[in-house]
Amino acid sequence: MNFRRSLRRDEPEINFIPLIDLLLVILIFLMVTTTYNRYRELAVDLPSAAGKASPEAPVQILVAVTADGQYRVDSETVGHADPDTLAGILTRAAGDRQNPIVVIHADASASHQSVVNVMESARIAGLARVSFATKTRQPD
């Protein structure tokens, strides 16, 4: 008996259809998620201005706040004061000068309330221009 005759050997084949489907999905995904940037440059002619420097420096009232909450207005040591007393001192320091700027030099460890008291005193005294002095860090 010849049993070999009925056993026919099929050639293995590779099915490319699932591979093509997978590559198509990956291609669509890449097309959707890719960003296309266009770099545009605008030619802008900025206006220039020339002005004279202000003839006089603005009048400043220097208020120092120490770490323990004491105040010093210009060169006068005030000590601990409530906002009303400090407002009177600021009014006296402003005198008849027009629009003085109150510059607050507060210690880094001074309480916030001490600084707020100076701001409240400036409001009571009618001094609307308040600024803070800062210290710039030196590059390492």
Automatic annotation (TrEMBL):
Organism in which the protein naturally occurs: Lautropia dentalis
Topology in the lipid bilayer: Single-pass membrane protein; Single-pass type II membrane protein
Transmembrane segments: 14-32
InterPro entries tied to this protein: ExbD
Pfam family, one: ExbD
One Gene Ontology CC term in the entry: plasma membrane
PANTHER family in alphabetical order: BIOPOLYMER TRANSPORT PROTEIN EXBD-RELATED, EXBD MEMBRANE COMPONENT OF PMF-DRIVEN MACROMOLECULE IMPORT SYSTEM
MF term (GO), any: transmembrane transporter activity
Subcellular location(s) per record: Cell membrane
Name recorded for this polypeptide: Biopolymer transporter ExbD
UniProt KW keywords: Cell membrane, Membrane, Protein transport, Transmembrane, Transmembrane helix, Transport
Similarity section: Belongs to the ExbD/TolR family.
UniProt GO BP: protein transport
